[in-house]
Amino acid sequence: MQRFFVFVAFSLVTGVFGQSGAFKKIPLAEVKNLQGKTVSSVEMVQNGDAPVILSFWATWCKPCVTELNAIKEVYEQWQEETGVKLVAVSIDDPRNAARVKPFVHGQMWEYEIYIDENSDLRRAMNVNNIPHTFLLSGSGEVLWQHTGYIPGDEDKLYQLVLEVAKGESIK
Fold first, then answer.
1. Ranges for the Thioredoxin domain (predicted)?
2. Does the bond joining 131 to the residue before it have cis omega, within 30 degrees of 0?
3. Does residue 10 lie within any of the structural domains?
4. Beta strands 112-115; 85-90: pairing state
């Protein structure tokens, strides 16, 4: 019984600290852009001193599409105010990867879109459920992460982006 409580306490502590995650950088993995060119994950998230939003999504994930469309409405303003860059990584498997490019064009997303067909980056970042959104420093340091989406989550994300853009630490 005591082991059970220790396990639960450890799980709660790691779960809470897992939300901020400022202790690690993005792992090295390869993804493909919509033109089929292979790009390293580290190169993909470089953004100088400005923050980066890294969103894992899939064409079949309705909450993912809803989140990315909600951000689309305010993304230009976010970029002007903070310099933020949004990188959306599709986890569609090789059978569905051909659907990603026309899907993105249909949504009229202006984000950088990549495909993680083999789930290398997804596994390296411990992404189990989508949408899974990370906030990174411009150098790829993981500052915050969140799984799932409910309307209004983009407002919380924007507040965090503002803090990072101002050089403040995330609360």
1. 20-166
2. yes
3. no
4. parallel
Give the tens place of pLDDT for each residue, 62-79: 999 999 999 999 999 999
- Tokens representing residue 23 in the block: 């202790």
**How many angstroms separate the CA atoms of 78 and 81, rounded?**
5
**Would you list the DSSP string of 88-135?**
EEE---TTTGGGHHHHHHHHT--SEEEE-TT-HHHHHTT--SSSEEEE
pTM, two decimal places: 0.85
130 and 58 in contact (C-beta within 8 Å)?
A: yes
Q: Which domain holds residue 34?
A: 21-165
Task: Tell me if 4 is assigned to some domain.
Answer: no
Structural domains in the chain (count): 1
